[in-house]
Design brief:
Elements lengths: L1 H31 L2 H22 L8 H22 L4 H21 L6 H29 L6
Length: about 150
């Protein structure tokens, strides 16, 4: 029984590592896209998804800058939640790797001719901080539920 349980845990761990790696690869792949393709993708998403949702609640949205910034925060929040679980709840290690990915992400944009903005790094870091805190809270909640309580 123990052996089957440890195999199941190791397959979960592998799935977690793969998901984390894919999140980082997707972030880097988006940064490597030429500006025109990236703008087209953001514009399509804004026009077909975000603006109709905003119209439903009675708000008119102009441009896609806010959508692009939110996408950065969402990407790095997701990555950081996964990192916390990869590092067994060690929030500082997770945040450190997330911060490194954020700086590498902007470096890729600089090298791909899109240009790097310090404001984008700060936006990415907001996502890292939010994801690290959220991931830590989720990790602690899940861990607490799995730990048997003592009967006194």
């Amino acid at each position: 029984m123990q052996r089957a349980e440890s195999k199941r845990l190791s397959s979960r761990r592998i799935a977690l590592l793969i998901a984390t790696g894919l999140a980082a690869v997707l972030i880097f792949a988006q940064s490597a896209l030429p500006q025109s393709i990236s703008a087209d993708e953001s514009g399509w998403f804004t026009d077909h998804i975000v603006k109709p949702l905003y119209r439903l609640i009675g708000i008119e949205l102009h441009g896609d800058s806010a959508v692009r910034k939110f996408a950065h925060v969402a990407e790095f929040t997701t990555l950081s939640v996964l990192l916390v679980f990869c590092f067994y709840g060690r929030i500082m290690k997770s945040a450190g790797v997330g911060f490194t990915v954020a700086f590498l992400d902007e470096s890729i944009q600089l090298l791909s001719g899109r240009g790097a903005l310090i404001s984008d790094v700060w936006i990415d870091l907001i996502g890292v901080a939010a994801g690290s805190l959220l991931g830590y809270l989720l990790f602690r909640i899940i861990r607490r539920r799995k730990t048997p309580t003592r009967q006194e």
